[in-house]
Records
---
Amino acid sequence: LLPVADSMQMALANLKDSDPEILKGIELVSNQLNKSFEKLKVEGYGEIGDSFDPNLHNAISKVESEELGENQLAQIFQRGYKIGDKIIRHAMVQVANCD
């Protein structure tokens, strides 16, 4: 189901200016998927500005940024997911100001 969640997030991000009825349908399906994740105790993580944690994140690139601090997430390419403390997929991220 994680690839479906990724597709829903991409669709919502890219269809903001499209037909409101299409957007509403995608939002309904996305909400239903999120409720299913809640029931299964699956939590998504990885937000811009979070601190990089190699136990949670897979850094695939780095960038210099005046807006972000050292080792903060600059971009999320793919959200991570966990159940409790068990990682089921690491977040794929870009890290700011790291060496």
Note: Helices lie at 2-14, 20-39.
---
Amino acid sequence: GQEKGMRSGTENVAGIVGFGAALLKVQDPKIKLHTIKIRQMRDSLVKSILKLIPDVQVNGSLKNRLANNVNVSFKDVEGFEVVVALDQRGIAVSTGSACSERRHEPSHVLLALGRSGKDAMSSLRMTLGRGTDRQDVEHVMRILTKTVERLRKKRV
């Protein structure tokens, strides 16, 4: 209710019905299969990053995260530089959430996870979508590996 529980309020019926419909939708076997496929591609992407790019750390839990989300930090590379370089190659990534993308400051989430400001500024966030396939992941890895290597050489 409203007024600190003293008066009843108008319930958001449309929101309640929509939430119920969403709960039913996530139980759909097709959605579950899609989530498994995305998680497998995400895990493949993370494994490739850790294998092919030195001095990288995964931000957050490898197990307890969204199926389509990857966030990593590259030592001695500004995350924003990677975003620009990949964008020039047609790959859309970010340094953080969409709501904080315009701010050029360390992610408060990464700082709360115990990352240093420098590590947080070197982070890259990648999200796999419904249309992402294995060829996309391989394409990103080829370009990402070369990009990080080139940016690190540029700093020396």
Note: The first strand starts at residue 56 and ends at 58.
---
Amino acid sequence: MSRFAATLVVTGSLLVSACGAHGGDAPAAGHVADNTELSRLYQEDQADRAVDPDKIDWATVGPRDVKRREQVGLIVDAGGARTAADFFHAAMVFQHGGAVQDFQTANRLALRAAQLDPSNKRLRWLAAASKDRELMNLGKPQLYGTQFRRQNGGVWELYEVDPSVTDEERAKWDVPPLADARKRAAEMNAAK
């Protein structure tokens, strides 16, 4: 089992599924349609995580994650990501990676998604969460307070947070105040 799988990370909130499907209608003139393959891979990624985190079979999900990242990487490298939803879907698949490079890729993709759709809060949140996950996996304090961990079946804890980052800065990335993250850790432990 990888270090990532052993240190189960919870984002604290479930993200809603992909930006709306087009239902087979042709896109309006000038409108770029979302990439259906990226949407499908994202949906599969989310379905693998739609259960109690303690019940995820990482021996099964891990290899599927690797395959999805490979497929998403090929699509993105070929220019197949064009919309904010495409970049979001790709970023989320990489966010569930196991290496620092995966989280860096997730961050780059999430930032591009947020640039394309600045009003979409979950895109900014994912950019912050991917940066936090990168830092956590480098053994550094996270900036925004989006990452939780539990080692060896113990209690959930908010991973170390850089004290110089303010709640005002968190709000710019649509991340709740740090006090809310601490409450979330307590709630996660109370639910056990």
Note: The chain has a mean pLDDT of 87.
